[in-house]
Design brief:
- This protein is of the alpha/beta class and about 375 residues long.
- It contains eight helices and 15 strands.
- Helix content is about 40%, strand content about 20%.
- Strand 12, helix 8 and strand 13 form a beta-alpha-beta unit.
């Protein structure tokens, strides 16, 4: 399933031409602001139909232009080749796979599963609860298309309920709470199972690189068993998962508070993810280096977890992240990279990228949006 080539047209500052990517490892080398990250972004965009840097697709179009496109050629493990085309023109977006229109970008997600390592991943460790939930949701969406559907449905119901609370249309709240309970419990069950599986990988990896053992992720749902609703017991096993009727009763008890606040106060959109060491929150007392390593190991765990679930190898996109580690941890981290179908890395000029080269690694010099292959 690796990328064989990419053809760009008016994508950010990059030259409108094709680039040969038919190598197991591809390195982009250059100074800041020359287009290295833009190339990774174009790969990610081709794989998922969205950018990891912006929700405003007009920002992807080269200055003074009104349209852009990204065309990729990739090969599955079976050897069969495919093409994708994503084009944006006048705020209209078109996605094609093998010449056929795709009406929902979720159809792309299992096509070229990319795992992105970037500086912004630190938000999954130190950022808002929303950003931590996003990481778990993204990990699930990589292999479970039904999770995308149930998440979309939950958000739609939640949006409608919040409108009712804002506009004081209380007669509709019973119906929306019933729907929220159905969709929300399905989300929480999938999240719980994913975190359990992820923990079998994450703590071990972090310990091997950092020497700090017993790090784990705890999933803290905002809906607890009705008998625990007033306690601080946040355990959430299959045995104490609330039933649909218990959640509905709980939401009814919350009704007065939600009417006063004019917003829904509980559900998967309020769940929390906590990093712990031996049952105690780890992040508040951890160093900057330990937090950055947590973020990197999250991505490696995501790649390993995906491979275990699907039996497929991901494409790894690494955006200058090795700079964040000292030499010893850098060596340990690279030694523990998961098996991948293809690896793309960016390096600053002067970095010892040759230390990571393998036979057949393609290396491109990037300058002012242009690229030249080192022979």
């Amino acid at each position: 399933m690796p990328f064989l080539s990419l053809t760009l047209y008016n994508f950010r500052n990059l030259s409108s031409k094709g680039i040969d990517l038919a190598s197991h490892e591809v390195f982009f080398v250059g100074e800041n602001g020359q287009g290295k990250s833009n190339l990774l972004e174009s790969l990610y965009y081709s794989a998922y139909g969205s950018s990891f840097r912006t929700h405003n697709e007009s920002e992807l179009i080269k200055r003074n232009e009104t349209e852009m496109s990204v065309r990729s050629l990739f090969r599955e493990e079976s050897g069969q080749t495919h093409t994708t085309l994503i084009a944006v023109r006048n705020k209209s977006k078109k996605i094609e796979k093998d010449g056929k229109y795709i009406h929902d970008r979720k159809e792309l997600i299992n096509t070229m599963p990319c795992v992105l390592y970037s500086h912004e991943d630190l938000e999954f460790v130190t950022g808002s609860p929303e950003r931590r939930r996003f990481f778990i949701d993204q990990s699930l969406s990589m292999y479970d298309a039904s999770y995308i559907d149930v998440s979309r449905n939950y958000k739609k119901i939640l949006r409608n309920k919040n409108i009712c609370l804002k506009e004081k249309q209380y007669s509709l709240l019973d119906a929306y709470d019933m729907q929220l309970a159905q969709s929300g419990l399905e989300i929480q069950k999938k999240r719980k199972d994913a975190v359990f599986g992820f923990n079998q990988i994450f703590g071990k990896l972090y310990g091997q690189i950092s020497g700090i053992q017993d790090i784990s992720i705890r999933y803290v749902p905002s809906w607890k068993h009705v008998q625990q609703a007033e306690s601080n017991d946040f355990s959430y096993s299959d045995k104490n998962m609330p039933s649909e009727s218990e959640v509905i009763d709980y939401l009814k008890k919350m009704r007065g508070q939600e009417q006063a606040a004019e917003i829904s106060l509980s559900g998967p959109h309020r769940d929390r993810i906590v990093f712990e060491k031996n049952g105690v929150s780890f992040v508040p007392t951890s160093s900057t280096g330990q937090r950055r390593l947590l973020a990197l190991v999250l991505r490696t765990g995501q790649a390993v977890f995906y491979s275990q679930i699907t039996g497929r190898k991901p494409v790894l996109l690494m955006d200058d992240v090795l700079l964040e580690l000292d030499p010893e941890k850098r060596q340990k981290f690279t030694a523990l990279l998961p098996e991948y179908d293809q690896l793309f890395c960016t390096f600053l000029t002067g970095e010892p990228y040759k230390n990571y080269k393998k036979q057949g690694t393609a290396v491109y010099s990037i300058k002012n949006g242009e690229w030249e292959k080192f022979e």
